[in-house]
Amino acid sequence: MSSKKGICVIGLGIFGLNLATTLAKSRQQVLVIDADREKIDFIGEKVDSAVCGDATNEAVLRAAGVKSCDCAVICMENNLSESILITLLLKELGIPKIICRAVDERQKKVLLKVGADYCVLPEKESGTKLAYTLSRRGMVDYFAPSGDFTIAEIVTPKSWAGKTVIEIDVRKKYRVSIIAVAGGEGEDFTLLADPTRPFAEGELLVVAGDNVAIEKLTTK
Questions:
Q1: How big is the CA angle at 101 (ends 100 and 103), to the nearest 5 degrees?
Q2: What would the pLDDT profile of 165-189 be if each residue is shown by its tens digit?
Q3: How many structural domains is the chain composed of?
Q4: Residues with Cβ < 8 Å from 92, sequence gap 6 or more?
Q5: Cβ 72 vs Cβ 16: under 8 Å
Q6: Residue 203 placed within a domain
Q7: Co-location of 183 and 99 in the same domain
């Protein structure tokens, strides 16, 4: 991989394959690692780098170039012990953000305990959704009630800090509506009823708009 920071996808089951191909289509720098040669050959031309090897081996992770990534997603299927070991290795290698696929809430709890930053339950969240979230600057989560309309949870853009909805002219300039605001992760959202209330850096916002507008707001 080049010096540009990217995303590493480990494990090419249905979820991992979906995630990696969607990220690649979004022009993200993608490294994939899997022990199955056929899967690596299949995806090799779709991503920046595809490595066949055992991701529970630190030497394989290093040789693959995982340290050039700022995010790794562990998509191992039904193998908690491998997911735990890979998580621990990635933490030791200093990967800033580690996301794990979990089968259930029990696995999620274990993986978060050993160092995962976030866990995805495929029954609740698809690889496509995670890829869309990872490929958008400042986006925390999103929901698409229809094909061309999106409700997204984003981090307040830095350029908005200290300014109000009126000053930014959000609806006219960005073509989105701000529904709610929260002081930060873990805090409750409240409706944004006062257009003269200034935004603070790091706040979370729930915004709604068409897909083009949301994409423009959350991409550089």
A1: 135
A2: 899 988 888 888 787 788 766 566 7
A3: 2
A4: 58
A5: no
A6: yes
A7: no
